[in-house]
Amino acid sequence: xxxxxxxxxxxxxxxxxxxxxxxxxxxxxxxxxxxx
Length: 36
Description:
This protein is mainly alpha-helical. It is 44% helix and 0% strand. The two termini are 16 Å apart.
């Protein structure tokens, strides 16, 4: 089961740089990874 309450939504429409997108992904991953 995947609880969607804390999901992030990123719309890839060119307004964010690749670096910003990667930082969001890395930060989210690290938050989840730390709980295991």
